[in-house]
Specification:
Elements lengths: L1 H13 L4 E5 L5 H10 L3 E5 L3 H8 L10 H9 L3 E4 L10 E4 L14 H11 L6 E5 L7 H11 L9 E5 L18 E5 L2 H12 L5 E3 L3 H32 L3 H8 L23 H11 L5 H27 L8 E5 L14 H11 L3 E5 L5 E4 L2 E4 L5 H6 L2 E4 L8 H7 L3 E3 L12 E3 L1
Parallel strand pairs: 1-2, 1-4, 2-3, 4-5, 5-6, 7-8, 9-10, 9-13, 13-14, 14-15
Antiparallel strand pairs: 6-7, 11-12
Length: about 425
């Protein structure tokens, strides 16, 4: 039965007559849905947030990498539609799961979204379907967490259905590397699943990279983000050392990066943010403990990166003291609240932690971010303030926490009393009242 089931599914995939389901229409899911629709597939997106689902069905994009102008024709043609429940799962041939995998407050993996979605799919599973997890997670999730749930359907993997992991590699805001031209790692729970999944992704992605197992594919992605976390921590630690030595970390790095071999540019900042780097290395750290292995570099990197907002707070207080202003009576303006330049995404943003710490020190803190008009998280509920000559002039300190390209940093420096620049956004601007990280 497995051969005929697999061949039938492969036939629908190769002729693009298969229906593709995408669970989670966020930064990963919506761009992927678009790529599948572009090559001729019909896509049903399961988005539990009713506001998002309604926007998609109106052809309105809320993701920076997908424009409404690009999305709308596929909505009008019936190539993409969004639903808020799982009733269409039985009619899907391939189901891609791209839901959040956050951390608990104790820095342990929270797979509740993956588990909940897997149960919903299992209740509607039928022979001849491919299920592929794209959410970043620790090695073993696909086989140890998802597979037992899917088997509750009474169907058998590699015979009745196929299961794989293909980690997302989305870099929000990157105009050069998109979903289509970023190579796709694929690992199946067996050879049949790998064959089906590789064929499925090969119809859309320019280069598919098969690996031996789903566990290997899971480890690939966690390592990629751990690599970045460790190197960012290295330059962040260098920034802390340069602060003690009275040197400019930016000058040191600029000179070091002129070497044409044996080095790769990474830069310091107020901390790390987003849905990957602050979270994914802890998945690997947690899994390593299960096999009695201590990941020293990963733990140290996370510790250094998490300390950076405190360092920014402390440096801000030092600057204020030098200006003769007590932190408890200061007025501070943060420029940028999103975790990355030119994005509206403030998940895990270090700027939020800087803001909290400064407020705990008694400062009156506002923020301006052209991409994030409002922030509501835990005890914080703030709206972006207008960036005006008066706002800059009446702030005791302006802290650049996100270097959005649309902002005129020359104008900001010209009107601010003092600037603390954590991103080197004022590079090339000569001013004595600018302090670099």
């Amino acid at each position: 039965m497995s051969s005929s089931t697999k061949d039938a599914l492969l036939g629908r995939i190769l002729t693009k007559t298969s229906v593709v389901g995408v669970v989670g229409l966020g930064y990963v899911g919506l761009p992927f849905a678009m790529e599948k629709a572009k090559v001729g597939y019909r896509v049903i997106g399961i988005e539990e947030n009713p506001e998002r689902a309604a926007k998609v069905n109106r052809g309105e994009s809320y993701i920076s990498d997908v424009t409404s102008e690009d999305l709308r024709p596929f909505i009008d043609a019936g190539r993409i539609r969004a639903v808020t429940d799982y009733e269409d799962v039985a009619g899907m041939d391939a189901i891609v799961i791209a839901v959040p995998t956050p951390l608990t407050r104790n820095l342990t993996p929270d797979l509740s979204h993956v588990v909940r979605v897997t149960h919903a799919v299992a209740r509607r599973l039928r022979p001849g379907q491919l299920i592929c997890l794209e959410s970043t997670t620790y090695p073993g999730t696909t086989e140890e967490v998802m597979l037992p749930v899917l088997r509750e359907s009474g169907l058998e993997v590699e015979r009745d259905f196929f299961l794989a992991h293909s980690p997302e590699r989305v870099d929000p805001g990157n105009k050069r590397y998109t979903t289509k031209n970023t190579s796709k790692v694929v690992g199946g729970v067996g050879p049949e699943s790998l064959e089906v999944a590789a064929a499925f992704y090969g119809q859309t992605i320019e280069r598919v990279v098969p690996v031996s197992s789903a566990r290997a594919a899971e480890l690939v992605k966690v390592f990629e983000n751990t690599f970045r976390s460790v190197n960012i921590a290295l330059v962040n630690e260098l920034a802390l050392l340069c602060d003690r030595l009275g040197l400019s970390v930016w000058e040191v790095l600029d000179a070091a990066f002129t070497k044409p071999f044996g080095i790769m540019p990474f830069y310091p900042g107020p901390g790390v943010g987003g849905h990957c780097i602050p979270i994914d290395p802890h998945y690997l750290e947690w899994k390593a403990k299960e096999v009695n292995f201590n990941t020293h570099f990963i733990g140290m990197a996370g510790e250094i990166n998490r300390k950076m907002p405190e360092f920014v707070r402390d440096k801000a207080i030092r600057v204020l003291n030098n200006l003769g202003v007590a932190a408890s009576r200061s007025r501070i303006l943060l420029i940028g609240i999103s975790y990355k330049r030119d994005l509206a995404d403030w998940r895990e943003s270090p700027a939020l932690e800087v803001l909290r710490l400064l407020r705990e020190s008694g400062a009156n803190v506002d923020y301006h971010d052209p991409f994030v008009p409002q922030v509501s998280e835990r005890s914080l509920s703030l709206a972006s303030v207008a960036l005006t000559d008066e706002r800059l002039a009446t702030s005791d300190l302006v802290i650049i926490t996100t270097d959005h390209s649309c902002l005129d940093f020359g104008w900001i420096v010209a009107h601010a009393r003092h600037v603390l620049d954590t991103r080197n956004a004022t590079r090339g601007i000569a001013a004595e009242h600018v302090t670099l990280l």
